[in-house]
Design a protein that fits this description.
CATH superfamily: Peptide deformylase
Radius of gyration: 16 Å
Family: Belongs to the polypeptide deformylase family.
Mean pLDDT: 94
Catalytic activity: N-terminal N-formyl-L-methionyl-[peptide] + H2O = N-terminal L-methionyl-[peptide] + formate
Low-confidence stretches: none
CATH topology: Peptide Deformylase
Keywords: Hydrolase, Iron, Metal-binding, Protein biosynthesis
Order of helices and strands: EHEEHEEEHHEE
Function: Removes the formyl group from the N-terminal Met of newly synthesized proteins. Requires at least a dipeptide for an efficient rate of reaction. N-terminal L-methionine is a prerequisite for activity but the enzyme has broad specificity at other positions.
EC number: 3.5.1.88
Largest sheet: 5 strands, antiparallel
Strand content: 25-35%
Number of helices: 4
CATH class: Alpha Beta
Distance between the termini: 16 Å
Structural class: alpha+beta
Amino acid sequence: MILPIVAYGDPVLRKEAKEISAEYPNLQDLIANMFETMYSASGVGIAAPQVGLAIRLFVIDASPFAEDEELTDKEREVLTDFKKVFINAKILEETGDEWGFSEGCLSIPDIREDVFRPETVKIEYYDENFNKHVEEYDGLAARVIQHEYDHIEGILFTDKLSSLKKRLLKGKLANISKGKVKIDYRMRFPDAKKAR
């Protein structure tokens, strides 16, 4: 089932999400719905707060990035089948030089900006079967993880922009929260009081 994606301005996007247990109600259905919602909006990741739930869960399918011709063979290999579920994730370490990449967000449509993040991330998480993993990723895989992880911490990519950039985007962001944006997927707007 495709869920409405929560738009910029909704308080749920600013909450630090809570951990869940394996007994979380209808967890497998929620995971399936999040993947379906992400694919319908042509995203590569989506976090539970983006569908209105302040829980520590996000899903990623970064395989579309594998088609980028500028990738190394190693990066392409990692991204080709990079479809994962992250539950109760904790970033243990971020290392390497910060590098810029144009990021967007399904909750903030029509805005893309360069965001600088460390190159490598070490993360502990549980998969959809509640098996624990500790893994290290770099490049685009690390970036997608960092972006989605920020969501469960109540952080948006626009928070990482310069104060000048934030001022320039203020009007656009206000319009998004009011539903004054062209989108081709279902969204829930905090100030418009309706989903489209």
